[in-house]
Structures are given as C-alpha cells and as structure tokens.
Amino acid sequence: MANYPVSGLPMPEIDLREITYGELSDLLDPRQTVKAANETISKASGLSVEDIRALRVHDYRALVRSIFIKSWQPPDDLKN
User: What is the tens place of the pLDDT at every residue in 13-50?
Assistant: First the structure.
C-alpha cells in the first residue's frame, strides 16, 4: 500500500483515479507551479491544499513519494 504516516493527520488513502496522467507527469516538471502541484497532490490524497502546505518537509516528501509509488503499482481494480 502506498499510504504513509502524516504527523498529526489521519493517514490518507492515495487514489489516482482522481487525477489525470498529465497531472501526474506534471508533478515531475520543474516549470509546474507549486499551487498546481499542491492541487494535484490534494486530489490524489484527499487532503486539503491548506493541510498539504502545513505538512512538515519530511511528511510532504513522503506524500509525494507515495503518489509515485502508487502510480508504479498495478491498478487495484484489475482482475488477473
């Protein structure tokens, strides 16, 4: 599971069905604005932009990492 502990907040469930491939790939683009990146992270995590901005650096990095880990895993809804 790509969830992670967030200091002082409930553990969010990463849901990539809420974002597009373009939004995911834009997270890697250094020209992406912080505001746009936080909105994408918010959509994927269910956290508000305000909560994301209030995260400690370690927690923010873990959140972004968990989004990319989840993106590399097979979709949960695929049948074998």
Answer: 899 998 999 999 999 999 999 999 999 999 999 999 99
Number of structural domains in the chain: 1
CA distances from 38 to 14, 15, 69 (A): 14, 15, 17
Identify whether 5 is part of a domain: no
Distance, CA of 26 to CA of 44 (rounded, Å)? 13
Q: Lowest mean pLDDT: which of 1-15, 31-45, 66-80?
A: 1-15
Residue 41 inside a domain? The answer is yes
By residue range, what is the domain housing residue 41? 16-72
CA distance 59 to 52: 9
Using alpha carbons, select from 69, 57, 71, 42 the residue that is nearest to residue 6: 57
Q: What is the DSSP letter of 18?
A: G
With respect to residue 34, please indicate whether it lies within any of the assigned structural domains. Answer: yes
Res 52: pLDDT: 92
